[in-house]
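Is this the right way to post structure tokens for a design question? Let me know if I should format differently. Anyway, here goes:
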């Protein structure tokens, strides 16, 4: 049996077993029980009543968190020379094409998001086996394959995130940092939850939102009442 750490035990003592928390109450509690020496991420996990193996029940989308994620997002833009200045001005961390394609083929993937253009997807497509498993492959549905590379960079830097239900029927993302004020974390989490609600597949039967949990890095998870997301 795993021995509980002092901090873990103290955190659990402040929780009510089996309780369904109001979102705002859960955020306040997460901030109270977080004991990491760094600014921990606040994460949300939503279990859905879908079968991800079926194409008509796949849940995937993008959401822009009102107050960002609190993380420094490293962006690579793979584009033609005429778009390089636009990408750099928008704040892209890396900009180029052929040199970065070769660098990625050699194993480099030290970025969080890759944005590219439709006209160079033939070259980027060669990187699918490397980028796909890491969740870095650009996709038109997520807005990372576009001619408006500057706008895409700005959106990503401002808190736009791409999410996809996993094979267990769970969608997961970070909605901020423990240092965020309670109202900002609540608004970010609510925005994500409402986005998930809007993406319910027509083929999904029964209960769509099965459970919602909020946690911070290394903290216990708190179960949220889907009806009390204020």
């Amino acid at each position: 049996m795993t021995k509980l750490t002092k901090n873990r035990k103290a955190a659990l003592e402040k929780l009510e077993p089996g309780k369904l928390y109001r979102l705002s109450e859960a955020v306040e509690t997460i901030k109270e029980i977080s004991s990491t020496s760094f600014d921990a991420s606040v994460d949300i996990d939503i279990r859905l009543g879908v079968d991800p193996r079926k194409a008509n029940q796949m849940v995937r989308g993008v959401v822009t968190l009102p107050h960002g994620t609190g993380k420094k997002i490293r962006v690579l833009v793979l584009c033609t020379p005429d778009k390089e200045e636009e990408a750099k001005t928008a704040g892209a961390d890396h900009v180029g094409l052929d040199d970065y394609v070769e660098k990625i083929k050699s194993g480099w993937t030290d970025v969080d998001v890759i944005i590219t253009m439709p006209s160079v997807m033939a070259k980027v497509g060669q990187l699918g086996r490397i980028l796909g498993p890491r969740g870095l492959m650009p996709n038109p549905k997520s807005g990372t394959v576009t001619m408006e590379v500057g706008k895409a960079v700005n959106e990503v830097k401002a808190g736009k995130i791409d999410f996809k239900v996993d094979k267990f029927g769970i969608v997961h993302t970070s909605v901020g940092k423990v240092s965020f004020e309670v109202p900002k974390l609540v608004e970010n989490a609510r925005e994500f939850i409402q986005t998930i609600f809007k993406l319910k597949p027509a083929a999904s039967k029964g209960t769509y939102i099965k459970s919602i949990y909020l946690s911070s890095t290394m903290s216990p998870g708190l179960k949220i009442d889907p009806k009390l997301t204020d």
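Format looks fine. Someone answered above. Worth noting: The first helix runs from residue 6 to 13. The mean pLDDT is 90.
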